[in-house]
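Possible regression after last week's pipeline update?

I re-ran a chain I had predicted before the update to compare outputs. Posting the input and the new output here so someone can diff against the archived version. Not blocking, just want to make sure nothing changed silently.
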Amino acid sequence: MLQVRCADYGLRCPAVDGWESTGGKVPDTHNSETSDANARLNPAAITEPQCHAATMSTARSLLIPPGSAGCYHCVQRCVRRAFLCGEDRYTGRSFEHRKHWVEDRLRLLGECFAVAIHAYAVMSNHLHVVVQVISGAVETWSDEEVAARWLRVFPVADDDQDAVMVRRQQLLADPARVGVIRARLCDLSWFMRCLAEPIARRANREDGCKGRFWEGRYRCQLLCDERALLAAMAYVDLNPIRAGIADQLESSTHTSAGERVRVGRLRPESLGALLRPIVGISSVGLSLSV
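New output (post-update):
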């Protein structure tokens, strides 16, 4: 199970409290004061804190098994935290239009994957998504629907309808391939991959360059209950206000909160309904109204 960063959600955590009691100083996990030549030459003499400091990051497939249902707060940052989706303070170039790319891609994936997107915020150098994976939904889809959804995510190069039909028939003729695709449509890692990769390719084409656009793999936090889910949604929606980009939720752009406000103004009757996902499987709702 992933550990939720309690400090992000205003919760108390013994580990965090202990860190705060040290005055915010990072403890010496290498235990440098007690280390000696014997410890460096004899691995068995290494103390537990030293072993902990040398631990490698855990594979994502071990933290979140493919197809695992649940709610997650995912964060994807631009490489070197550069403002690749906002206004570059050094060159003066504006890349604000790329935020629309991310929003459009989120809506498409929400319609194709077995997910419910509860909140998002597209910032100038990073992206927040609060997403719920509903793995059981894919079992109710026919093979034809699975193929159609996959071809929306990965359309054929030739947009001709005949080419689309040929590709769909090729997929349907291979039940094993359809099974693989069905599993991917309820996989969080594939959801984030299908979100990040096309944006990176498109931005690199626009800049005429190659290389990374996003920084490493995305960070992910498991939200264990509805209370954690609501806290994560609030955290994400308040990002533009904390960053000084917006003064209030009504004026925030490229966020789920801003979209909810706009929908509420157009359809006031929706304000009394249960809180539904921004996009995705709409049957999933929270026990609170807007």
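Follow-up from reviewer: compared with the archived run. Residues 1-55 have pLDDT under 50 and may be disordered. Marking as no regression found.
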